[in-house]
Specification:
heterodimer; A: mainly alpha; elongated; B: 575 residues; alpha/beta; six-stranded mixed sheet; 20 strands
């Protein structure tokens, strides 16, 4: 198999003469190669658009109640119907995208910074660094994670910042462990030895040589936890922690609509729930595509 | 050497394997690549055919196509493969599954990867036997032990229960051979069966394969890049280049009178006795061969590196003290430390190149890593240019000014380059860190270094996976000479390269030494290669130096028994 791989890579290297625009072309290739990735990227762009310009283009004010149109089913006027206070559900679902998206992005960025660095340090230095990081991760894993997140938000206070912190903390072990394992494998790799010979210090090697090399794997982790982070934020809001009404947020909206399902007003919970599902689905599918994007080996 | 006579091919007896016009294509991102084109190959009953070629020549792909185990991107687009009257190209997958292992079997390059790491070796042999219903379940373990005995594994009944990690590379390859021969196949395909093994092990394994296949009247296809090996063990040799067969001839004839220029080029590049470094290069570079000086015999006495009583100890593995205490076991009698390097003393003079030769596990790499200050020593002193560098802890050495003066070229050019750094960035790394060169001068300096090692400038912006093996080796060498060091340790710098590339890289190293006055410590298992580049050679075994002396003397009149064994095990093309 080795031989065929070299043939393929050589042929590819010969054809590739120019490096310019390779990233763009590579992105186009990754998307076109796998239709599922293409679909996920389209969905991602849609979600990002909603988050960016959603609040300026929605037909109604998401907070304005109108008692004349309470509990109306979906119609041309109100695409997703209205809730018990007569608020337009479509507008609320679109506007909520920004908050959920920001919570997910912020918590993933935070946990990537914490878990990624701690894990790489643990894997590279070993010894006491490894013991401390690994035991912290084990301790967090020992709790039921959602309950832990509830506890953190309840203790720190009911704010969006604290939701972000809680979500980051419960995801810490996943990042730390992946980064630790990957760094550990590369600790004695030839290029790390070579970096030592070139005079790279003991802190520069894990940061500049090892961390970039484990990015493809971390990217998969990021996309998976993005979905989980959204779900977690919505879950916390659903049980009344974190974001408070009347702020439009998918979790709260599902919670509010849940009581009405029995009486036949299904649309109040269904549409925010569907938005939540689509977002989680999209982030999970994105993983493979993101890995291919940041992996230089794939960019031939 | 064991060699059997070729059965008369009188046209009436059909060949066992008949491959006609075989063409294999690979679907890649940038279009279709033809890996093998219009290949014709016949293997008669009980004949050994060698397929020789460099990486990318399509020799493995050909055999994979015969076995129909190409990966998903590969496709046989043309040709027929007839194996004892049966068309393998059109055979159903279920039939093929039956054929593999029972009629045609294969030995792979890496024996450890070919064995299941968590299953006892005896059980793995039983699996094959039961799969093809060769014996019933009552006799199967007896048969497995018999197979282990056949491949000369000592104490087969005990080894039956061993796991692959408990066996050496050579032993694992014997187990793989037992697996391949268990069902008495008619054709054995050996794909670089000894590439990862030491020369003495290689000889033992190849002798065994030939003897066993001969006993059973089997046919063998030996795929190798080593002309010497093919010449020693094959009846007929097929030379492949870029997917085409360029020459087919009896092995005696092909070495005496190679017809195709590519075969001649390959033969020239193979290191062998009585040939100098310059003579390895292709004929059109012959002028240079005369002009350039050869390895000098006289050596300046001014010592650059002096190593005295160097020791590296590792704690012995297995039955850790905690478990031992838990189960109340007494510590094993041999619980003292394992000495990987056992008190060696040697020196390297300024401008001298010294070869450090030995088989895997002899401590040569550990020695080089200690001298390199990448790992700590247990005892002894390392004096470099009058200063004891052994006293600095390895982890702090990276920042010391002395770091600039000792550099290294690594064994695996792929592994030693950061996959996310371009070639230019890799070469610039030591300049940035140790020479503190301003960034605007970097590019010019990188280009100069690239020119020195013969790396085309347009390749500087490529990533390692876009470069060939030889180009990666050049990047590694450019990085090592970037700081103009006094001593470079070459850790098997050509082991992962094709012979023609090896010839060029070895010549490059010699040129650099002549122009820059660097000392080399050349670590290798191959005496034939060391001979080309080194004034003096040190032979190591089990952590100790067994012989030391001028290269010529050691090769001509080896004094230690072990050196003689090493020399005798190298297969030579009959020239």
């Amino acid at each position: 198999m080795n031989e065929s791989a070299t043939i393929i890579s050589q042929a590819a290297a010969v054809v590739l003469k120019r490096q310019r625009n390779s990233m763009l072309r590579h992105a186009r290739y990754v998307v076109s190669e796998n239709p599922v990735t293409g679909f996920a990227f389209t969905l991602f762009v849609l979600i990002a658009l909603c988050a960016l310009i959603g609040p300026y283009v929605v037909p109604y004010n998401p907070l304005a109640s109108d008692t004349t149109v309470t509990l109306k089913p979906p119609s041309l006027e109100h695409w997703f119907g209205t809730d018990q206070l007569g608020r337009d559900i479509f507008s609320r679902v679109v506007v909520a995208t920004r908050l959920d998206f920001v919570i997910a992005l912020a918590s993933v960025a935070l946990v990537f910074a914490m878990g990624g660095f701690a894990g790489v340090a643990a894997g590279y230095f070993g010894g006491w660094t490894d013991r401390i990081v690994s035991r912290i991760a084990d301790t967090i894993m020992a709790f039921p994670l959602f309950v832990l997140a509830m506890g953190i938000v309840a203790a720190l206070g009911n704010t969006v910042t604290n939701i972000v912190i809680a979500t980051a903390i419960i995801n810490f072990p996943l990042y730390a462990r992946v980064a630790r394992a990957e760094a550990n494998v590369r600790r004695e790799a030839g290029f790390v030895q070579a970096a030592r010979l070139s005079g790279n210090g003991e802190f520069r090697i894990p940061l500049m040589h090892i961390l970039p090399n484990i990015m493809p794997i971390m990217m998969v982790q990021i996309s998976l936890t993005m979905g989980y982070a959204i779900l977690n934020a919505a879950g916390l809001s659903f049980i009344g922690l974190g974001v408070r009404p009347p702020t439009p947020e998918w979790g709260i909206m599902v919670a509010e609509g849940a009581a009405n399902i029995i009486s036949g007003e299904w649309w109040i919970a269904l549409f925010p729930g569907a938005a939540l599902m689509l977002a989680v689905f999209c982030f999970n599918l994105l993983g493979d595509g993101l890995r291919d994007l940041v992996d230089p080996q794939r960019r031939t | 050497m064991l060699k059997r006579t070729v059965p008369a091919r009188d046209g009436k007896t059909l060949p066992l394997l008949d491959v006609q016009n075989l063409t294999v294509e690979f679907q890649t991102r940038r279009g279709v690549v033809r890996a093998v084109e219009q290949v014709n190959l016949t293997v008669a009953k009980s004949e050994t055919v060698g397929i020789v070629g460099e990486s990318g020549s399509g020799k493995s792909v050909t055999s994979y196509a015969v076995m129909r185990i190409l990966d998903r991107a590969g496709r046989i687009v043309d040709g027929t493969v007839i194996f004892s009257g049966m068309n393998l190209r059109t055979a159903a997958e279920t039939e093929m599954r039956d054929m593999r292992g029972r009629e045609i079997s294969m030995i792979f390059q890496n024996p450890r990867a070919a064995l299941n790491p968590i299953r006892k070796i005896g059980k793995q042999i039983e699996d094959v036997l039961l799969q093809h219903a060769q014996v019933d379940t009552y006799q199967v373990s007896e048969k497995a032990v018999e197979m282990l005995n056949l491949v000369r594994i000592a104490r087969p009944r005990e080894r039956y229960h061993a796991y692959p990690f408990e066996l050496s590379g050579g032993m694992c390859q014997r187990v793989v051979i037992a697996l391949a021969l268990a069902c008495k196949p008619q054709l054995l395909i050996a794909d670089e069966p000894t590439t990862g093994l030491d020369v003495t092990t290689q000889k033992a394994v190849m002798d065994l394969v030939v003897e066993l296949t001969q006993q059973r009247g089997m046919s063998t296809i030996l795929i190798t890049h080593d002309l010497g090996l093919a010449a020693a063990y094959c009846d007929r040799v097929v030379v492949m280049e870029k997917g085409h067969i360029v020459e087919t001839a009896d092995s005696d004839a092909i070495f005496k009178d190679p017809a195709h220029p590519y075969t001649r080029k390959l033969m020239r590049a193979t290191p062998r006795l009585g040939v100098s470094l310059r003579e390895l290069l292709p004929e059109d570079q012959g002028e240079r061969a005369k002009a350039a000086p050869l390895v000098k015999e006289t050596v300046p006495k001014d010592a650059l590196l002096f190593v005295e009583n160097l020791v590296k100890e590792y704690p012995r593995q297995g039955g850790g003290p905690v478990l031992g205490r838990l189960f109340g076991k007494r510590p094993l009698p041999e619980s003292e430390n394992f000495r990987a390097v056992d008190g060696i003393t040697f020196s390297i003079a300024r401008g001298e190149s010294v070869g450090l030769v030995g088989e895997s596990g002899c401590g040569k790499s550990t020695t080089s890593m200690m001298v390199m200050r990448l790992i700590e020593k247990s005892a002894g002193s390392i004096i470099f240019d009058g200063e004891d560098i052994g006293k600095f802890p390895a982890r702090h050495f990276a920042k010391l000014p002395m770091r600039k003066r000792i550099q290294m070229v690594f064994q695996d050019p792929t592994d030693s380059l950061n996959p996310r750094f371009t070639a230019a960035r890799a070469i610039a790394d030591p300049l940035l860190r140790l020479a503190e060169m301003p960034r605007r001068q970097l590019r010019a300096c990188c280009e100069e270094l690239a020119q020195q090692v013969g790396l085309p400038l347009e390749l500087l912006d490529r990533f390692p996976h876009q470069l060939s093996g030889g180009q990666k080796a050049r990047v590694g060498i450019a990085r090592a000479i970037a700081l103009k060091p006094d001593l470079i340790i070459l850790d098997e710098p050509t082991a992962a390269l094709d012979v023609s590339v090896q010839a060029i890289v070895l010549n490059l190293l010699q040129d650099l030494k002549d122009s820059l006055g660097i000392s080399y410590l050349f670590v290798s298992h191959d005496l034939n290669v060391v001979r080309l580049l080194c004034n003096r050679v040190i032979v190591m075994r089990a952590g100790k130096i067994v012989e030391e002396g001028p290269t010529k003397r050691v090769l001509a009149k080896p004094q230690a028994e072990y050196t003689r064994d090493l020399l005798a095990a190298i297969p030579h093309p009959p020239l």
